[in-house]
Amino acid sequence: MLKRLFLSFMLLTSALYSNTINVAVAANVSYAMDSLIAEFNKSNPNTKVNVTLGSSGKLTAQILHGAPYDIFMSANMKFPFTVYEKGKSSTEPKIYAYGSLAILSSKKRDFSKGIKLLEDENIKRIAVANPKTAPYGMASFEALKNANILDEIKSKFIYGESISSTVSYTVTATDIGIVAKSSLYSSKMTGFKKDINWVEIDSKLYTPIEQGIVAIKDTKEVKEFYNFILSKNAKKIFENYGYKIP
């Protein structure tokens, strides 16, 4: 009897999630994914969304080598275009959100100096995303170069492979860090206050971070999630996590 009930339960669970999609997601979007999936499942309750997080560069390499992802949500447009140009996607890249940079410190700081605060001699270690694998790292380097402080502070850098690992280094292993503004809207980050622990970096210092999406497969469930990410409902969620929307 118990065995029969167990088998019935397993069959029911399988039926409930008979439609599964695998989404490769840039690390900066990790903070918003639970909210996005919850909203998507309101109208698509039978579709299970599996998320793999990583740097956009690493995820792109995996896709080009045949990783079984259905959708790719990158931190910029460069990597989705690479996937598209290599014939690995079923759609052209589209922008789903614009990301922003912020400076974060676990200690109270005088953020009136803006990005120039990083020149402070008392700041010995700065967390920054690797510009070779993470678009937010590329944008960070561009901002520092345009602020004319990159060469001066480069020796202080501790590199994270992705922006999420950079956030971790910022709050545990360094004095300060350059992070995705979206990370500051996570429930785990509510203790960090604007102008006390963090400040947004002047957007004029770097090229807008155009975050791009491509569908790799073209199944019904993939199209539904892809269209949802570009919908008004998803855009509201992105705004709630500090993104600007197209």
Key terms:
alpha/beta; D-Maltodextrin-Binding Protein, domain 2; five-stranded mixed sheet; about 250 residues; disordered N terminus; about 35% helix; 9 helices
Fraction in beta strands: 15-25%
Task: Give the averaged pLDDT, no decimals.
Answer: 92
Given as residue ranges, the uncertain stretches (5+ residues, pLDDT < 50) are 2-17
Q: From the structure provided, what is the oligomeric state, counting identical versus distinct chains? A: single chain
Order of helices and strands: HEHEHEHEEEHHEHEEEHH
The largest beta-sheet arranges its strands as: 2-1-3-10-4
CATH topology of the largest domain: D-Maltodextrin-Binding Protein, domain 2
Biggest sheet overview? 5 strands, mixed
Number of DSSP helices?
9
Bin the helical content: 25-40%
Distance from N terminus to C terminus (CA atoms, Å) equals 56 Å
What general form does the structure show?
globular
Number of strands: 10
Backbone CA Rg = 20 Å
Give an overview in words.
The chain is α/β, with parallel strands linked by helices and 246 residues long. It folds into two domains: 16-98 and 208-240, Periplasmic binding protein-like II (D-Maltodextrin-Binding Protein, domain 2, 3-Layer(aba) Sandwich); 100-205, Periplasmic binding protein-like II (D-Maltodextrin-Binding Protein, domain 2, 3-Layer(aba) Sandwich), CATH 3.40.190. It is 37% helix and 21% strand. It has a five-stranded mixed beta sheet, sandwiched between helices. Helix 2 (30-43) links the parallel strand 1 and strand 2. The longest helix is centred in the N-terminal third of the chain and has 15 residues, at 2-16. The termini are far apart.
